[in-house]
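Weekly structure sync, notes
Attendees: PL (lead), two postdocs, one rotation student
Agenda item 3: pending single-chain targets
PL asked that the sequence for the first pending target be pasted directly into the notes so everyone works from the same version. It is reproduced below exactly as submitted, 461 residues in total.
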Amino acid sequence: MNAPPAGPLTVPGRLPRRVHLGYALGSLATGAFGTVPGLLLLPYLTDTLGVAAGVAALLVLVPKAWDVLVNPVAGRISDRTASRWGPRRPYLLFAGLALALLFAAIFAAPFGSGSPAPGYVAVAFLATATAFAFFQVPYVAMPAELTEEYAERTRLMTWRIAVLALAILVSGAVAPMVVSAGGEGLAGHRWMGLFVAALIAFGAVGAFAGTRAAPTGRVRESEPTLRAQLAVAARNRPFRALLLCFVVQSAGVATILAGVNYFADQILRDPRTGATLLFACFVGPALLVMPLWTRIGARVGKLRALVAASVLLAVGVAALVSAPLLQAAAVYPVVALVGAGYAGQQVFALAMLPDCISWDEARTGRRQAGVFTGVWTAGETLGLALGPGIYGLVLQLSGYVSSDTGTAAAQSEPARFGILLGFTVLPALLVAAPLVLLRRYDLPTANDDADRPVVVGDDSR
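Predicted structure, written out during the meeting:
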């Protein structure tokens, strides 16, 4: 199964709408796993299992940091896979279903809130992160092999990010509600784990089935060793610049995500509905502005559009530092501004990745999408893992008090100040500062099709 046959990939320009939608369904799985642990796992450890914030930060960081090592390996394996379903699709199905099962296990709490509980969570999270690597890396590698058309990749990413935004909304807004409806504490988190597992399974199966009509072709010759493939990725200067920027920005976004529950509880004073409203205001506008971002990208280029979206995201989240002085009704429109920036930042970074891969293929004559996306997702995973770790460290340093009752303990003013800064100023810096790295992104940013706007669902071209 793992010997790659020689021969060219058959890659069309335009893709049918059913492939756009089918591929995008995989973002239900990536969005749910990318959102819920970052949102609920740290509060679950500190406020339900009674783990100290600093220890909880390590328990969240280490298993996901493990993926930094696993993702390139998963990319190489999928690069060398030959099957009747193509090199990537088998992993969508089997790794996706394993991911769903293991996610439910994270919150199963077989030991209750006793001393073995944190260790169990760490082991279950490590296994889940490994399954996620073997789903995510082949999934992210697919666009570079589905089409060679510059604007078509933006369209494909727009569908994907639209579904990703929906997944973030459903998983991020509904998961806390499931915890509450299930009785809070251990019982509520068990029900939430089952709910998110079902969402992941639906996305994985949907992506596998929805891309069955997509051309898969055959994997071209690649470098003979993983070390050689990683060296190729390191020599791709545009890829390197984009990756480093995206990793740091991902850490900033994950820091925001990790602080949502704490911000809603301690700053907005709304522990029951605050997190859900924050997510609705964050993701709802993101869905609405997606076609606008696509048109902006077609007009000014992906690179400039990425910078503009990142600046909007950073300015919006920095403005939330004034939240203690405002009514909650004035906070939510600012959160909507943050969501609009986040949508563009995700769309253009992910649309620029296949351009880097194709540029490298033209330069070297070798198709190595799996290795590039393995390195990419390893970096993204590191950023997403660092976010909760950074936020947990801020909580520890500011004196946050943990609880094993299922509800947050009363916090001191320094702790509340740490919650605020970790949710606002710190992530704003992490999003804005790495933009200087993009000065080294010197890839051509347009082709003959790039000057036409691309709209989700538009098959006129």
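Discussion points:
- Residues 1-12, 446-461 have pLDDT under 50 and may be disordered.
- The two ends are 37 Å apart (CA to CA).
Action: rotation student to compare against the earlier draft before next sync.
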